[in-house]
Amino acid sequence: MAKQGFSKASRLLGPSQYSTVFQKADFKLSAATMLLLVKKSVLPPRLGVIVAKKNVKSAVQRNRLKRIIRESFRLRQEEFGTIDLVFLARRGLDKMNNQEASIQINKLFDELINKLNRSK
After folding, report:
1. Measuring CA to CA, which residue among 55, 48, 51 is closest to residue 22?
2. Does CATH place domain 8-118 in 3.30.460.80?
């Protein structure tokens, strides 16, 4: 069993890494979320999280959502392969409780993993 930590190597850091994903990204939409992804050639998969104040007013709610997103990614990062992923929270995700938000996020991750497996 591999490590399931969320180290610096597993994060998108800095504007240049985010802009690379935004420029070359495929995207996956759901009602309350958007995923942008770019395939790359090296491990590990990396995650960037954007929860805008415009979409989620309360700082407590923004931080809660970021924790849920990071935890869902951390537990499933081996399944993603070699991608950079930016997770954008949209309006409505903050209205869900932790369990509902986690289910919504994992459902989106399932769809993404299925899409990645089909394209191999």
Report:
1. 48
2. no
